[in-house]
Amino acid sequence: MDVEGCEYEFFEKTDLEKLSKITTGIIIECHNLNSKETYENLLSLLEKLNKYFYIVHLHGNNYGGEEEY
User: Between the chain's N and C termini, which has fewer beta carbons within 10 Å?
Assistant: First the structure.
């Protein structure tokens, strides 16, 4: 899934339990992690996904420098 920043909104509106019954995996490219708010949205998303899926690999995009929160 590469939806240029809409991934958080998509998962807020998606029934993850139903999704977990029709797919075996999801690949997501998360955007805008240079914002503290978006970073917190990512952490919340990962917690929700972890209830229904195994998180196998998480890789931070190293383009654009680093942020400290």
Answer: C
**16 pLDDT more than 90:** yes
Is residue 64 pLDDT above 80, yes or no?
no
CA–CA gap between residue 64 and residue 59 (Å, rounded): 14
Per the CB < 8 A criterion, the answer to whether 33 and 39 are in contact is: yes
Please name the residue ranges forming H helices in 1-69. 7-12, 16-22, 36-50
Q: What is the pTM of this model?
A: 0.75
Q: In whole angstroms, what is the distance from residue 38 CA to residue 7 CA?
A: 11
Look at residues 26, 25, 30 and name the one whose alpha carbon lies nearest to residue 2: 30
